[in-house]
TrEMBL record:
Cross-referenced Pfam families: 4HBT_2
Protein name per Swiss-Prot or TrEMBL: Thioesterase superfamily protein
PANTHER family: PROTEIN THEM6, PTHR12475
SUPFAM superfamilies in the cross-refs: Thioesterase/thiol ester dehydrase-isomerase
InterPro entries, per database record: HotDog_dom_sf, THEM6_lcsJ_thioesterase
Organism phylogeny: Bacteria, Pseudomonadati, Pseudomonadota, Alphaproteobacteria, Rhodobacterales
Amino acid sequence: MYPFIRMAKELVINRNAAKLPPTGTHVSHHMCMPWDIDLWAELNNGRTLTIYDLGRIPLAQRTGLIKVLRRQRWGLTVAGVSVRYRRRIRMFDVIELHSRLVGWDDRFLYIDQSMWRKDGICANQALFRTAVTSSDGIVAPERVAKSLGTKTVSPPLPGWIQAWIDADAQRPWPPERH
């Protein structure tokens, strides 16, 4: 089940947090609960993606994007993700979650997120391709930036993100059936 109560908690505790610029970093803290674990008593890989929501949505709130989405009747969706799992997060471990919009291209926003253990080691990192949507489809990020009252030109995307975009463009869609 989706962690609605945890999300509500994050939105409430961040409602009066300092505003962030569009590319600012939102930092939050979370505990790996018994319902987040897999058979090996560590954070389930699917639940990892859900916990990343607990950073992305408050990031959108602190940058003013949530207000723009409501005003324009737009939505927010994930269009792709690449995750690196490097260290275990065990039940009751507390993690520090960092969430930041890195930049955008003509269709998508790219958000870098990472989970850090108490010992300062990065447990995992994810690059999300997200999109703002309307009833007409994807809203151009330039239009979203303009609605936020910020620069409409993206900061340069790092080479590793551009390489991921280029590599993903080579994948066939729809995929072959096996």
